[in-house]
Model the fold of this input.
Amino acid sequence: MSALAKAPDLEVREAVWNEFVAAVRASLTPATKFTERELLGPKTTMRVGGPARVYAEPASAGELQHLLVEARRRGLPVLMLGRGSNLVVPDAGVDGLVISLGHEHWQKFEPQPDGRIRVGAGLRLKNLCGLATKAGLKGFEFLEGIPGNVGGALRMNAGAMGGWMFDVVEEVQLMSFAGETRTMKKGEMHVDYRHCAELHAAVALGAVLRPAASAESTDIRRQIDVYQKKRVESQPREPSAGCIFKNPPGNSAGRLIDEAGLKGERVGDAEVSAVHANFIVNRGHATSADIIGLVRKVRARVKAAKGVDLEPEVLLFGQEWKDVL
Ligand code: EPU
Done:
């Protein structure tokens, strides 16, 4: 076999992908984006990483279900992509169907007569805050600066400024990877710091949120400005994936990394931010290998200096950190 020939199992896999693409493409509407080898790096805030074997932005729940069912029938992995703000995409990309709810169908913001708000999973947190502020609905201010959408914030139970996503959630509509939809009350879900178990193998379609209270828009805006100021002062502006490690119980990953003397430490173009040590920033042309290398270095140094094992908070797309660290 020549060095360029593909191994037989890769050829079989490729044939399955080609058959999947042909079968699914024929039944999707033009409103659904459906591409092969779409680069994912530009869709992430870290701006690194290779392509998705297949990428889709379904324009309806029916088309999302069709994609999930057809991928599952062929044993093809499915990965959900939110706003890509808590993600490192491997340089080689992912051999999977990557689905994003980027189509406007998923961006609903619908205040209900009972005071609650129905939101789509594709709605950006920034827009959620803006619309809630305009409507005089208080309680979402802490989400404003998180560069995510509702689906990603549910999946990660994203948080900032002492609050987290599930503080404002009453129920979540989800679709399993088998294509079945259901609604779950918050109390039925297993939610923790940066974690929601039910969304590991399911897609959040939307949620019902409960505002804390009604308030004057100007008062809400004032609170958002306070949070924004704090964020601008304490977090870097270069491309990053937000905080790279979880805070260990009762401790601060940023402080531990800082005290271990790691600010400014680099692997390639990946650098421990001088502004906040729990951010790895991309200084221009970082690769995911650079970032993984720097994560490894930081963990080793913090372990040696402080005796603490730091666990990554960001997801490594399509892989497990334990397999690369
Ligand atoms: N600190 C240092 N050196 C640093 C960074 C921080 O000494 O380089 C100290 C600070 O002085 C402070 C403490 O560490 O005493 C905590 O820092 P900070 O207030 O910035 O909060 P954090 O725990 O590092 C958390 C979330 C952020 C969120 C902020 C603001 C995690 C891992 N991080 O950061 O969330 O924006 O609070 O509420 O939970 C994210 O999850 O991606 C994220 C950015």
Observations:
- The chain has seven helices and 21 strands.
- The pocket of EPU is lined by residues 160-161, 234, 242-243, 246-247, 252-255, 258, 276-278, 313 (CB under 6 Å).
- The longest helix spans residues 288-306.
- The mean pLDDT is 96.
